[in-house]
Amino acid sequence: MKIADLRVNHVKNALGFQLGSPGFSWKVIDGGDAKRQKSARIIITSKELTVFDSGDDPYANSLDYQADIKLMPRTHYDWSVTVTADNGETACASSWFETGKISEAWKAEWITPGFDSSIQPIMAREFTVKNEIKKARMYMCGLGVYELYMNGQKVGDEFLAPGYHSYDFHLQVQTYDVTSYLKQGVNEVQIWLGDGWFKGRFGVEGGYTNLYGDRLYAISELYITYQDKTEEMIGTDGSWKCRQSPITFSNIYDGEIYDARLEEDRNWEAVIVKAPTGCGPLTDRYSLPVVKKDRFDVAELIHTPKHELVLDFGQNITGWVEFDCDLPRGTDLCLTASEVMQDGCFYHDNLRTAKTEYTYLSKGEKAHVRPHFTFYGFRYVKVECKQPVSSESFTAYHLRSDFDQIGRIETEHEKVNKLFANVLWSQKDNSLDVPTDCPQRDERLGWTGDAQVFSETACYNMYMPAFYRKYLWDMRAEQDALGGSVPNVVPRLKQGLIAGHGASPWADAGVIIPWNVFLHYGSKTLLNEFYPVMKSWVDYRRNQGEEIADRHLVKDGFHFGDWLALDHDEPGPFGKTDTLYIASAYYYRCAKIVSEAAKVLGYERDSLKYGELALAILAAIQAKYVSPTSIGETQTGSALAIAFNLNPEYQAQEGEELSKRVELNNHHLNTGFVGTPLLCPALTKTGYHSTAVDLLLNEGYPGWLYSVNLGATTIWERWNSILPDGSLNPDGMNSLNHYSYGSVAAWMYADICGIRPQEPGFKKAEIRPHPDPRLGRVRGILDTAAGLFISEWDYGKDGKVSYSVSVPFDAAAILYLPPGRYKDINGMVQPHDGKGIELRAGTCRFTEQ
Hints:
Helix content: 10-25%
Number of helices: 14
Shape: globular
Radius of gyration: 28 Å
C-alpha cells in the first residue's frame, strides 16, 4: 500500500500559490488486500513545530481534507498523511507547500524603464551576498510578460509569466526558489520584459494595443536568509538600471525579433519609480506555470514548388521552435509558423493578421536560440536564411500549463484511436494559462462557450481543477463588474465584439464548468469558492426576466445558440435551433445545478429557492416548446431535450425522433457547439447507442472521422475546415485546432467505456459499458481523484463479450451489464437481470455465456 499524489488545493508542492482555505488531497495506490481507508492522520509542521495534527480521523476525506490552520506569509510547511486501512495496514507519505506574501505589505516599488515605452527593456541591479545562504526566495510580478535571470542564468522552467489574467482585477505574483542561483560576493539580477497580453496587440479584427497599460513594469522582493538566521531583502527601487533588450519586438500574434548583437550593449540608464494605473492588487498566483511538456524533432524536410524550405514536425502543437546556429554576424534567420500546407506550399492566410514569425539576427557566435515572449500554433515552419541550415538543428517544444493526462481510451479501431489523440492534442494546445478557442491566429481568447462545451471531456482527459480555478477566479472578477452577467470571453477585453456578455450558452459556463469540476474531483472547497459565480449568473438571468411576460423564459438578447451548426437554410454561423429555446433550456439546467450545489454545501434555503425556480422554468419551457411527442425540429433540439430531461413523459419518443433525424440525414450529424456534445449521449440514453456509434464511425462529411481521413492531428473549428481536395474552406473561420467538437470524448468515456461518477470525485462510480462489435475491444483508463478505474470490454471470436473492471482503493462501483448469463473471475456462471452489481476495490471479470 502506497500513498501518492499529495496535493494542496490540487497542486503538488505548491510554491507561492493562492491557498485561501487549503484543501489537502491524496490517494492510495497498490492497495493489495486493503480495500478501504479506515482513518487518516494529517500532520502539518513549520520550523520543526507542529501547527496541525488531525489525530486518527475516521472521517478524513482524501479528496478534500480541510485543516483548520492560519497560514503565515512566506512560510514553508511540511505535511504528511498516514492512512490506516480496513485490514490494519498503514502507509505514510509526506510533501510540502510554501506560502507567498499573502497579505503582507510590499516594501519594494514598481519600476519602469526611463526610455521610450515601445522599447523592450532589461532591468537590472547588482548586490552583494555577504554570508553563507540558507535559502533565498524571489517574489515578483512583471508586466506584460517577463523572464528572471540570476547571474546570467534563467531562473526556473516557467515561461510567459505572469500569464494571461484579468490584470485590472488582480496581478499575480510568482515565487521563485533562487537559493542555487546565488553565490557569495557580487551577484546580478536581471528582469527581461515583453509586451505580452498586457500591452501588445491582442483581440480579433486586428486587435488592440495597450489594453491594460501603455508601459512595461516590474516589482520584486528578494529575501535572503543566511545560515546565521539573519535576513536581507533586496527590492526594486530607483537604484535599478535599464537598457534595451536584444528582443527588439515581440507580441503574442506577430512573434518576436531578436538581435543578438544587442547583447553587447552596456548603455545602462536610470529606471523610473512608477506604479501601473488601472490594475488590481498584487496577489499570490492562481495560474499553473506554463512549461515545456513535449518535444518534437523534424518529421520531414519539405522543399516546396515555390522553392521554400519547410519543416514538418508531424503534429499541430502550441509552443515554439528552438535551434542551434552558427551564422556570420548580421545574418538573419526567419521562421514562420503555420498549421497547413496548400498545393504543396507554405500557407498561413487562415491565421488572418497574425504574422507568427520569429527572426534572429546573429552576432557571429554559436548560440542556442529560442523565443521568449510569444508562442505559436503550428505544425509547419518555413525557414528563410541566406546561409545553409540543417533540419537537425531545429526542435519544436509544446508549451502549456503544467497539468497532466489522467484519462486514456484504446480501441481496435485505429481511426477512432486517432480521433481520441486529436481531441487530446487540441486540449493540450488550448490550455496555455487560459482555455482558449484556438492557439494560432489573431484570437487565442478564453471564449466561455468553447470552454463550457468541452469542460466535461477536459476533466476526463486531464487533471484540471487548479487550471479551472484560475479561469473561474477571473470569471468571477469580470462578472462582479457586470452585475452577475458572464462575459463571452474571459479575461474580458473591454473593447469591440469581445466586450459582450450574457449570451447563451457561452455565459452558462459560469455554472456548467464549476459543476463538472466538482463532479470529477469532489472538492467542496472549490465548489464553495465557485458558488458565487454560479449563483450570480442565475440571479442575473432571473432579474433580466422580472419585467417581461413569461418571465421564466429567456425572451430576448443576443445568443450564439448552436454555433456553426449545419442545419440552417440560410448561410452563416448560426444553427436552425431556436436560440431562445436553447437559452431557456440552459437557464433551467443552471438553476437546477445551483440548487444541487447549494444542497451539497449546506445552503438549504438556497437549494429550495433555486429548485423552485428550476421547476418554474421547466414548466414555462414545456408550455411554450413541448408538443405531445417532440420538442424540437432539429437534432440539437431533441438532443437538448433528452440531455436536460425537458420532456420526461415523451423521452422515448424524443429519442426515436432523434434517431430518425440522424438516419434521414444519411447517418450524419448537422449539429454545432450546443448539439454536438449532447447528440451521442442523448441517443445512447434513449436506447439508440448503435446510431450514436454510426455517427462516430461515419467517415464522410460532416463527421469526426472525416478530418482524420484528411490527416488531421487536432480537432477543427468547422466540420469541413479542409475540403476533400485538401483546400481550405472558403467560408473562413478555419482554425485547425479548436477543441469544441472534441467534446464527443466525454461520451466515449461515459458510455462506450461506461465510466462516470456516481458520487463526486469518483469515490463511487457507475460502470455501464455499451459494447459494439465495430470497435472490437475498448479499454478506458481513468486515474480519477479517487484512484485508477479501468473498464474494458472485448468481443471474442465467438461473438461473446467479456468485461473487466478495476476499482481503486477506498472506492466502489456499480457495474451494469446487459441481461444474460455471465461467468465471473472464479468460474461461477450466474444470470444477471441488468441490475447493478456492487464492486469493491480490486479487479473483476465477467464473460458472456
